[in-house]
Write a structure and sequence with these properties.
alpha/beta; TIM Barrel; Rossmann fold; Immunoglobulin-like; 3 domains; six-stranded mixed beta sheet; four-stranded antiparallel beta sheet; 24 strands
């Protein structure tokens, strides 16, 4: 039994929290609602800073395991892995917290309330924070988010390992430069079909302890003070029983950006009245005045504090260390050899093979004398990290990974090639000042590994230091600076080229698809990323990632960035043909899917079971993902949508049976009022290893098996 299922234990914590809060003055309660909550010595309450980050590892608090960025982990399409990553992060968080507490350190980023995961939908590839998410699909985001939260919060029946947070609630995905004033206008259909399902899953399935509101407004209401989102949906419809935190300084935006209130006193009253319990920032100090002016009741303040102290009780902060099993986790768990090995394994699973013409990959080092490693991301540490990152004890770039792997057996020649986004590397040089070096390296090399893309200085959060374009958003999907010219120069050398793309989002690499024989999407692969790329390039493992986002051919086919309607967006609603489809990814091995079957042709409340057999017909151990898609055969409905998946790891010649359940909700869609139901009619169920679209078929040469299912009467969900 998990703690979230142990209602007697939770009731006991609530009782203890209520008793503790009852002894506080109004001012003391108000200050407990700030992220940097001070000590109340007379009640033996230690100071606590609620702000901590764990997007892909314990962040901003010194050395910790730096896993690949969230979008990369999503590409693994592996629910079990996500839970293991969550558990590993929680282990390091507890280990660091235990040591910090021992030495009296309660600073920012040193608590147990981890503000992760980000389960916003990556609806537009221009959004700078998209790499913090699990991609564009509500189902995939829900499954990975649930398992990550379960890993973070643990399986103890009495205590949480750490408290996870679902953010940013809700309908939040740029533009970054407008977020403090932006009103996302969205219909009920898109709201309930796309933007809310992952949050609902984290609340109702995973029992996530915290929900963070977003900066923007939704249909006129600021998210951190939204009656619709926080009161009616989150606590009303979904029964959320944890606490709500504002995004940082978002409550101030109510009057300075959104202009829905006149001043700070009105802003804090609106937030707390609608269920925001804790303020990341300091504006909640106005709550004392808001109570005095009758804008919010002291009972609301008390209720918020009781929720906050219930969370601290669940984390064991008011119990003896020998009663809390996680208090015994030693600091030696941090960045241990076991953690480093696991991180390397995770990084390998995230890599997506987009093209491999004539089997250029894997490379055989025995046939090579000189390898050229070129490009602005070849030796760029920041291209390993993404944002909301911790500090790795060692960063292995792609260049370093290849050098370490090849040792003295093969000569490695390197060139930065060009600046990541400027027209020259040296400030005093002429434009394209590394091109002669590039040509020399190409001429001397048997094969060229070209590392292009972005880093977190080009795509990220508004206000982050170093974001060079559009407050962190991308202006377009092109390779920045001189990278496209560098790509063409290397291709024109006549040498075999392997393109390693490092980015947290889709890039329109149309020239590369036409002219480069092998392409790997490496995302921001973490502290061990360069080693993972090197071992994959040289065949120590096979790529197994799948794209969690659509790669478009350009922005021309996309609606306006500020348009939150889903029409024309993502694989679910796009009309054109993508460059690379959602769910797509190749392997060094080959797989045969056979025996596809479905348990019936009539849909009932019990749902259906879908099965198949998958065999590794290649020559090396590899993994493949069985993917099940459902399409309603009615006009005006989305394209086939992912509704079940299973990662399967097989030895050469090994075969495994896969059986997946499609609940009735897999066939449901939302109407214009947001009501979810299964309409009468026919549905197509597709069984395969990728999306059942024409572009995937042309890239893979494979066609998914198709079944028709009939629903006679329809049913509400």
């Amino acid at each position: 039994m998990l703690l979230r299922e142990n209602q007697d234990q939770i009731s006991e914590y609530k009782k203890r929290a209520k008793e503790l809060v009852s002894q506080m003055t109004l001012e003391e309660k108000v200050f407990q609602m700030l992220h940097n909550a001070p000590a109340i010595e007379r009640l033996h309450i230690p100071a606590y800073n609620w702000w901590n980050e764990a997007l892909h590892g314990v962040a901003r608090a010194g050395v910790a395991t730096m896993f690949p960025q969230a979008i990369g982990m999503a590409a693994a399409f592996d629910e079990d892995m996500m839970q293991e990553v969550g558990d590993a992060i929680a282990t390091e968080a507890r280990a660091k917290f235990n040591a910090q507490q021992e030495f009296g350190d309660s600073d920012i980023y040193k608590g147990l309330t981890m503000w992760a995961p980000n389960v916003n939908i990556f609806r537009d590839p221009r959004w700078g924070r998209g790499h913090e998410t699990y991609g564009e699909d509500p189902y995939l985001t829900s499954r990975l988010g649930v398992r990550f939260v379960e890993g973070l919060q643990g399986s103890d029946e009495k205590y949480m390992k750490v408290a996870a947070c679902a953010k940013h609630f809700a309908v939040h995905s740029g533009p970054e430069e407008l977020r403090h004033e932006f009103n996302a206008e969205v219909g009920a259909q898109d709201m309930y079909e796309t933007y809310l399902p992952a949050f609902q899953a984290l609340v109702q399935e995973a029992g996530v302890e915290t929900v963070m509101g977003a900066y923007n407004r939704v249909n006129g209401e600021p998210c951190c003070g939204s009656k619709t989102l926080l009161h009616d949906i989150l606590r009303g419809k979904w029964g959320f029983d944890g606490h709500v935190v504002s995004d940082c300084w978002a409550v101030k935006d109510f009057h300075t950006g959104h202009h829905v209130t006149a001043n700070g006193v009105e802003s804090v009253a609106l937030a707390v009245e609608n269920g925001c319990d804790i303020n990341c920032g300091n504006i909640f100090v106005y709550l004392t005045q808001a109570v005095q002016e009758g804008l919010v009741s002291e009972e609301k303040i008390t209720q918020a504090c009781e929720r906050l102290f219930t969370t601290r009780m669940k984390l064991g902060m008011f119990d003896r260390a020998d009663q809390v099993p996680y208090s015994g986790i030693s600091y030696e768990e941090v960045d241990s050899p076991k953690m480093r090995a696991f991180n390397l394994e995770v990084a390998k699973r995230t890599l997506v093979l987009l093209k491999n013409e004539n089997g250029l990959l894997p490379l055989d080092k025995k046939r090579l004398k000189t390898v050229g490693v070129i490009g602005p991301n070849a030796n760029n540490r920041r291209a390993l990290t993404g944002n909301y990152e911790g500090t790795a004890s060692r960063y292995v770039t792609v260049l370093e990974g290849i050098q370490d792997y090849l040792g003295d057996e093969v000569r490695v020649m390197a060139s930065e090639g060009c600046h990541l986004y400027k027209d020259r590397v040296s400030a005093l040089g002429r434009p394209n000042d590394r091109i002669s070096e590039v040509k020399a390296v190409c001429r001397a090399s048997d094969v060229v590994i070209l590392c292009l893309g972005l880093d977190a200085g080009l795509e990220g959060e508004e206000g982050d230091e170093g974001n060079e374009f559009a407050s962190g958003d991308k202006p377009d999907l092109a390779l920045p600076g001189l990278q496209e010219e560098l790509l063409k120069t290397v291709c024109e050398s006549g040498k075999p080229v392997v393109l390693v793309l490092m980015s947290g989002s889709a890039l329109a690499v149309n020239y590369a698809q036409e002219n480069v024989p092998a392409i790997i999407q490496a995302w921001y692969p973490g502290g061990q990323g360069g080693r993972a790329v090197a071992e994959t390039l040289f065949g120590e493992c096979s790529p197994e990632g799948k794209l969690p986002v659509t790669f478009y051919r350009g922005t021309e086919e996309l609606p306006a960035f500020t348009d939150y309607s889903m029409q024309g967006r993502t694989y679910r609603y796009m009309k054109g043909e993508p460059l690379y489809p959602f769910g797509y990814g190749l392997s060094y091995a080959s797989f045969a899917v056979s025996g596809e079957e479905i348990s019936g042709q009539e849909l009932t409340r019990d749902g259906l079971t879908v099965g198949c057999r998958i065999r590794n017909t290649g020559g090396m151990t590899a993994a493949e993902t069985v993917q099940i898609y459902v399409k309603a055969k009615r006009d005006g409905t989305p394209n086939a949508q992912l509704k079940a998946l299973k990662k399967v790891r097989l030895q050469p010649g090994e075969e495994q049976e896969v059986r997946l359940t499609l609940g009735v909700e897999a066939f449901s869609l939302c109407d214009e009022q947001g009501a979810r139901r299964v309409e009468p009619g026919e549905y197509c169920v597709y069984v395969g290893t990728a999306q059942p679209d024409a572009r995937t078929e042309s890239l893979t040469g494979k066609k998914a098996a198709e079944f028709t299912v009939h629903c006679a009467d329809g049913m509400a969900c």
